[in-house]
Amino acid sequence: MEHYKDDAGVVFGDVNLREGRVTQSRDGTPQNPGAGGWPTLRYYNADTGPGGAPVERITNQKICDEFKIPQRMILCKNQPVSRVHGAVNL
Q1: What is the pLDDT of residue 81?
Q2: Which residues contact 15 (CB under 8 A, 6 or more apart)?
Q3: Which residues of the chain have a pLDDT value below 70?
Q4: Of 48, 50, 51, 73, which has the fewest Cβ atoms less than 10 A away?
């Protein structure tokens, strides 16, 4: 994403499950690909450790549609969010 092109603290990765089945992290935490919708989005930082945590939807949209909104990516990076019941205006 253009917003993060110069931020060395942000890295986006993509795993092709057809070529490499990543089902757990190096510490054994299940990654649960496909759980909660597709794509499966996770974030990793000092608080989550190498196992990471799932990015949860904050709108009523599918996660793939929710993340088409650039502001949603910024929110995800700046603060992990908790599940919100009902829609959130972005």
Answers
A1: 42
A2: 22, 33
A3: 1, 77-90
A4: 50
3-state secondary structure labels for all residues of the chain: CHHHCCCCCCCCCCCCCCCCCCCECCCCCECCCCCCCCCCCEECCCCCHHHCEECCCCCCCCHHHHCCCHHHHHHHHHCCCCCCCCCCCC
Residue 57 CB burial class (10 angstroms; 0-12, 13-18, ≥19): buried
Residues 27 and 30: their CA atoms lie apart, in Å, by: 9
Phi-psi domain of 34 (left: phi exceeds 0; alpha: psi -120 through 50; beta: other): left
Q: Which residue has the tokens 């986006």?
A: 12
How high is the pLDDT of residue 77? 62
- Residue 69 tokens read as 């909104």
